[in-house]
Amino acid sequence: MRMVIENVGKKFLDTKKNEVTALENINFSIEEHEFVVLVGPSGCGKSTLLNIVGGLLSPSKGQVYFEGFQEKEPNIGIVFQEIALFPWRSVLENVLYGLEEKGISKKEREKKGQHYIDLVGLTGFERAYPKQLSGGMKQRAGIARALSVEPDLLLMDEPFSALDAQTRTIMQEELLTIWDRTRLSTLYVTHNIQEAVYLADRVIVLSRHPGQIKSIIKIDLPKMGRNQEKYRDQFEQYSNDIWNLIRHDAQEALKES
After folding, report:
1. Which PROSITE patterns match (predicted)?
2. Residues 216, 161 share a domain
3. Which of 99, 132, 158, 249 is least enclosed, having the fewest CB within 10 Å?
């Protein structure tokens, strides 16, 4: 499986009916098993691009397509920044939602649901409701729900941004462990440069409006254990390089906020 974003642009009308170009001339691909991270200043179109890839928005020009699919439509799983669990459904019932929509038999979907609940570390909380869970546990449930449909591509839109620093670090480590077991092709959006370097095979840096690709940086570090002391200098160099690409745009975005 290979996903291709080809010459994608997006325009929309703002509240004053003026045409705004959000994205322009976006070209990259996501290879099978690859973890790609989008970073950039506020207003650069990261979430818009992710929603186009997920089929939630249509591009104004260009196309998004998958190579290597003849027999079936590709499955896409999405984890949003807002923890979009149904409050009236238990953890297990939330995780099973996508499988129910696909018409999977009750026995098979409960088996798959339990597998992914176990995978994200929520064993024992199957019958708990969202109001009984911490922020990190809610996001794990959201990840399990996205994984349960066994997606060909996983999309994640700043999934840990609302969590406190310690929980966020733990969730980053757990996400890498999950990726190591599933090897899912992933497109991940974040504002956090250190998070991008920690997770990514490649980091795609976008400019502010209109969002265009400034640089694509391959992170040449082992996928697991990048936070070890022996990689600290390389890790910080990647972080500095990305920040230097973003700095001016971020300062300009701050003036408009």
Report:
1. ABC_TRANSPORTER_1, ABC_TRANSPORTER_2
2. yes
3. 132
Which residues constitute the domain of residue 114?
86-151
Q: pTM of the prediction?
A: 0.92
Domain count, the chain: 2
Our measurement of the distance from residue 181's CA atom to the centroid of its chain's CA atoms, rounded to an integer in Å, reads 17
* 81 in any annotated domain: no
Q: For each of the chain's 257 residues, which pLDDT tens digit applies? A: 889 999 999 998 878 888 889 999 999 999 999 999 999 988 888 999 999 999 999 999 999 998 877 667 788 999 987 777 899 999 999 999 888 888 888 888 889 999 999 988 899 999 999 999 988 899 899 999 999 988 999 999 998 888 888 888 988 999 999 999 899 999 999 999 999 999 999 999 999 888 999 999 999 999 988 989 999 999 999 999 999 999 887 777 677 76
